[in-house]
Design brief:
Layout (H helix, E strand, L loop, with lengths): L1 E4 L6 H10 L4 E4 L2 H6 L2 E4 L5 H11 L2 H8 L4 E4 L1 H4 L2 E4 L5 E2 L4 E7 H4 L9 E6 L1 E2 L14 E6 L1 E4 L5 E7 L2 E9 L2 E4 L7 H13 L1
Parallel strand pairs: 1-2, 1-3, 3-4, 4-14, 5-7
Antiparallel strand pairs: 5-6, 7-11, 8-10, 9-12, 12-13, 13-14
């Protein structure tokens, strides 16, 4: 069973619908016992880093997620991926979960071409930097759907895939041990995204 963490900031319906379409048993929950019983965990998220971190902290699930990440596959999606890092700098500095080394910084600040739109929204090809079981059904250069204004940096050792936006190499997929993250939304990335979710369900 795949447990999707409900802490008030996730796009839960489309994600759970996508997983069920793949035949995966799925539960949306904020119950610690259910997360411990699950075979895999997904941490979704939309919105601002600090607000999401506070809401996640309020659920009491932060220590549970850290414990379970040492035992089973955990996938962070979009803001959920950003929360996996050491810290984020959206409207101040905020601690992350510390499951993936690196930090989350402003995309606009690093873009040389200030005419490029932020949020970075739309389809971009994903270049595979390092092969991984998550790419079992995914081909190098396939297109995925992004919506974000901040991105993960200083995480080269954990980066599995990246997309180019102007001069910036946007970290698209990361892995550290049992923990994976995608900056883009696989549940909104058509067949390519469903194949990534299928691979995660089989890890």
């Amino acid at each position: 069973m795949i447990a999707i963490v409900d802490y008030g900031v996730g796009n839960l319906f489309s994600l759970s619908s996508s997983l069920r379409a793949l035949g995966a048993e799925t539960e949306v929950t904020r119950d610690a016992g259910h997360l411990r019983d699950a075979g895999r965990i997904i941490l979704p998220g939309v919105g601002a880093f600090g607000d999401a971190r506070e809401k996640l902290e309020a659920t009491g699930l932060v220590p549970v997620l850290r414990e379970e990440a040492a035992r089973k596959p955990l996938l962070g999606i979009c803001l959920g991926m950003q929360l996996l890092f050491d810290r984020g700098f959206e409207y101040g500095e905020h601690p992350g979960l510390g499951l993936v080394p690196g930090q989350v910084v402003s995309l606009r600040a690093d873009l040389e071409d200030k005419a490029l739109k932020v949020p970075h929204m739309g389809w971009n090809s994903l270049d595979i930097v390092r092969d991984d079981p998550l790419f079992r059904y995914f081909r190098d250069g396939e297109y995925v759907y992004y919506v974000h204004s901040f991105y993960a940096r200083d995480c080269g050792a954990s980066t599995l895939g990246a997309s180019r936006y102007g001069n910036v190499s946007v970290t698209g997929v990361v892995r550290s041990g049992n923990v994976w993250g995608t900056q883009f939304h696989p549940e909104k990335s058509g067949d390519a995204g469903l194949r990534l979710l299928r691979a995660f369900a089989e890890l």
